[in-house]
Write a structure and sequence with these properties.
Layout: H1 2-10, H2 12-40, E1 46-47, H3 49-79, H4 84-120, E2 126-127, H5 136-160, H6 163-187, H7 193-206, H8 210-232
Parallel strand pairs: 1-2
Helix pairs in contact: 1-4, 2-3, 2-4, 3-4, 3-5, 4-5, 5-6, 5-8
Length: about 240
């Protein structure tokens, strides 16, 4: 715990940047919603734009920044004489604490936005209430998965350099562009060997219960964290 506190102290500026990002994007979402409703005139229904902005944009930044910060803090700690056995768990533990704090902050913005809705948008139907995101059964697996990705890509960055960023960007492109397009192709009714395999994979995943999927996320994250440790335990310091 002492090592985690030390890491949090060392990463204070990083934590403040995340906080500023959440505040800034929440406000941007609120301004954007006001423009859409009162200037453009889209009044059929409204979305929780501020909460969405406060959650998803900082999450992307935290993934990218966490991958980049791990090598810095690893090199600094080990070069000052800290052991890898204590440094690596402390870095990953501090990342988990920061991620959980970011989600907690986003939950406060969610409640603030509901209050704003009652005052400024009374009577407007709200699409897809995002309150379900702030349940511990979702928060912990997602935050643990982010820690695992930070650890893995941070370790790869130390091993192979900037090529790790290329892998990271490819994964993000697949998640945010490839998966929606693949979903469209699956539902389009087209039939080929690749889409048949994809449909079977989707059916298999959705065959599990929600708790089964979440448990799978935790298990995979634990394996990825272990792989990260194996990569870092003999990693040489780069000054």
């Amino acid at each position: 715990m002492k090592e985690i506190k030390r890491q949090l102290y060392m990463r204070w500026e990083e934590i403040m940047i995340y906080a500023i990002l959440e505040i800034g994007f929440f406000l941007f979402g609120e301004v954007l919603l006001w423009i859409v409703v009162y200037l453009v005139g889209e009044k059929q229904s409204i979305i929780q734009a501020g909460t969405a902005m406060a959650v998803f944009v900082p999450m992307f930044v935290m993934n990218f920044a966490g991958m980049n910060s791990l090598p810095l803090h690893f090199n600094t700690a080990v070069s000052l004489g800290a052991t890898r056995r204590r440094t690596v768990p402390a870095i990953l533990g501090a990342t988990l604490v920061i991620d959980l704090a970011a989600v907690w902050s986003a939950a406060l913005f969610y409640h603030l936005e509901k209050w704003i809705f009652r005052i400024a948008y009374a009577g407007f139907p709200v699409e897809d209430d995002l309150g379900f995101l702030f349940q511990w059964k979702y928060i912990f697996p997602v935050c643990l998965a982010i820690v695992a990705l930070n650890g893995l890509f941070g370790a790869l960055f130390l091993r192979v350099g900037k090529a790790a960023f290329t892998v990271f960007w490819i994964l993000w492109i697949v998640v945010f562009i490839g998966i929606p397009r693949l979903g469209h192709w699956i539902q389009s009714g087209q039939d080929n060997a690749f889409l048949r395999v994809c449909r079977k994979a989707v059916d298999m995943v959705f065959g599990f219960s929600e708790m089964g999927i979440l448990a799978g996320v935790v298990a995979v994250s634990a394996v990825v964290i272990f792989v990260s440790w194996m990569l870092l335990r003999r990693q040489q310091v780069e000054v």
